[in-house]
Amino acid sequence: MRTKRLRLVMSAVLVGALAAGCSSGGQEETPQETGPVELTFWTWAPNMDKIAAVWNAAHPDIKVTVSKQAGGDEAAAKFLTAAKAGTAPDLVQAEYQMLPSFVAAEAVADIKGEVEAVRGQFSDGIWNLVTLGTDGVYGLPQDSGPMMLYYRTDLFTKYGIAIPKTWDEYAAAARTVHAKDKTVYLGGFSSKDPGWFAGLAQQAGGKWWSITGEAWKVGINDDATKKVADFWGGLASDGVVDTQAPWTPEWNAALNGGKILSWASAVWAPGVLTSNAPDGKGKWAIAPLPQWSAGENYSGFWGGSSIAIAEGSKHKKAAAQFASWLNTDAKALDLLIKEAAIYPAAKNGQALMTTAPEYFANQADFWQQATTIAGTARGFTFGPNVNVAYSAYKDAFDKALQNKSSFTDALGAMHDATVADMKKSGFTLAS
Hints:
By secondary structure, the protein is of the alpha+beta class. The protein contains 18 helices and nine strands. It has helices spanning 2-10, 48-58, 72-85, 99-104, 112-115, 124-131, 153-158, 167-180, 194-204, 223-238, 249-256, 269-276, 316-328, 330-340, 347-350, 366-374, 386-403, 407-425, and strands at 37-43, 62-68, 91-95, 140-152, 209-212, 215-218, 262-266, 284-287, 301-309.
């Protein structure tokens, strides 16, 4: 089976840099226990204990206890360590890019049989993020980060530019805006956000990792991603896009002060704008990302996570039942939205979001537009050493900005570093 082949391909090593020494010993399938079930759930989402309490009240034989965790690499490393020690929780919130490392460690279960009934609740793009391009399913999508273009309506009018339908139109608008005022930029390129760049590569059709037979194939420098790198490299070289580090006080000031007119970001951006650009309230709107070819309609993902079930759990079926309820039941989805501030991955959850964020009160159809865009987002298979690839992205593109050198070469360096790490770790690679 393809799923078993994936295990063989991936089980050469755990994720070296992420959790050194935490390789799995190849655990045997743990039989299901009978009687009342108690499940432990590790998550960093806020107020998840309140949501679990609603489940517990209605399901006295399956009690879920929530343990609040830190997010990011720290959470992933902690889970891998616990899996090796046999103390992993039954359920864990897992970022999509971390799932391959969990599969490599044989730390999460293939739950295809348990969740196949809810497959129709999710778009193909988001579902592909939990299958890793195989016949297996290693998590149930919880939230997603479809990307769109956020833009200042008043400043687009001031500078006489239209919403760009294609990236060529975006480039032309960037030059127009900066020619009129050298302190103003249409948008920016970030060498600090590999997840942002990955989302744009997904939109272009990039395939950074894939499984070919018994081996991994790495394609970070494929033609689609080269197109993205060349595009931003040209704009950066011409000095017509902002290249300062995002999330800094200076970047916040530029965003708030109308010096950055648009931001290619994800569905969670309203919270950032509310905090970092309060003066823009009621002046921003959203549109689909510009397309690489006229008539296309694609987006990509920046961020998002799934709920995975530990391979060592004694209660996989019960855990899958809770995960399915949490991420597809109308009442649970409403709670995820209101209590955990989550943009649901499930289609019926997205349909519940009808009132625009307060910051976007000027755009009553904000969530309707976001839902339409979410349906166009295509992801890709992440690999077992995303952390290495992301670190290489920051190093290579930081240097390219500093040295005003080729973005294509930077992409090549990122690709080479990723391949070298996989070879060193013992993964079989296709030529």
